[in-house]
Design goal:
By secondary structure, this protein is an alpha/beta fold. The protein has helices at about 5-15, 20-25, 60-70, 85-90, 95-120, 205-220, 225-235, and strands spanning about 15-20, 35, 45, 55, 80, 125-130, 130-135, 135-140, 160-165, 175, 185, 190-195, 255-260. The protein folds into two domains: about 15-135 and about 180-260, 3-Layer(aba) Sandwich (Alkaline Phosphatase, subunit A); about 135-175, no CATH class.
Length: about 270
């Protein structure tokens, strides 16, 4: 379609159903949908008390469910990517309250993917992240520190502690502390369930996730020589554990990928082998 002119009109001419709000998304039937619900981000990022807003006009779980409803009609399968960007952007602002709120949206979207996977034994679900932001730390509230000689360092300015926040289903509270407003080099978690999930256990280079996905989709023999060499190096330190998802099946494979801290994926991929 190119990148010039009225792109939404071009998308419609190419067969996409164009929607701009939640009611339009719910009414859309596909098989191709283009949903644009904001001029840029669907939230306003800022530190607490400075105009930050997290109120997406269409929720991430709803978009995820609609995408799965439409794309799962394809007999050849599909790949779907879903991103929760608010976690990263609010962490740049040291806004713990809205980091938590946007994280809850991601959690609900993951549940949508898990529910879909529960009905499809060929589903691989991966929850991943591209980086950590802020060096976020969870701390006890000051009044219950075990050793008053080592109190919490509350920081100052934008990286000052946030909270206290209530622990769900408990009478406890906690603080959120920040070290920076930028990205860090801290390790990030990756979890997986389903066929091929056992290859994502342990500690490894981030490129190993790509290789594990390619192996699950197309089989190890399909990887290029360079990708195979990369996977061999990256997998050298991976400790594989039993009962983490089983081996990839020989038929069509569905992979759901959901990520956090600025890069969230929900996807389905089918590889014919």
């Amino acid at each position: 379609m190119g990148t010039e002119g009225n792109l939404t009109r071009k998308a419609q001419e190419a067969g996409y159903e164009y929607v701009t709000d939640a009611s339009g998304l719910r009414a859309a039937s596909g098989p191709r949908i283009l949903g644009l619900f904001a001029n840029e981000e669907m939230f306003q990022q800022a530190p607490e008390g400075e105009g930050a807003v997290y109120d997406p006009p269409v929720s991430l779980p709803e978009m995820t469910q609609k995408a799965l409803d439409i794309l799962s009609q394809d007999p050849e399968g599909f790949f779907l990517m879903v991103e929760e960007e608010g976690i990263d952007e609010m962490a740049h602002q040291s806004n713990a309250e809205l980091v938590i709120e946007s994280g809850q949206q991601l959690d609900e979207a993951v549940k949508v993917g898990q529910n879909f996977a529960a009905g499809d034994p060929d589903t691989l679900v991966i929850v991943a992240s591209d980086h950590e932001t802020g060096s976020l730390a969870i701390e006890d509230t000051n009044e219950i520190q075990s050793d008053p000689a080592y109190p919490n360092e509350s920081g100052a300015g934008r990286t000052e502690e946030d909270g206290p926040f209530r622990v769900a289903d408990a009478d406890k509270k906690f603080l959120v502390d920040w070290t920076t407003t930028n990205h860090t080099a801290e390790d990030v978690p990756v979890t997986a369930m389903g066929p091929g999930g056992e290859s994502l256990v342990g500690v490894y280079q981030n490129t190993h996730i790509h290789d594990a996905m390619a192996d699950a989709l197309f089989g190890p023999a399909s990887a290029s020589a360079s990708a195979t060499a990369s996977a061999s190096t990256a997998s050298a330190g991976v400790q594989k554990m039993p009962k983490t998802g089983g081996m990839a099946p020989g038929g069509p494979l569905l992979a759901l990928l959901v990520g956090i801290a600025g890069f969230a994926l929900v996807g389905r991929v089918v590889g014919g082998r």
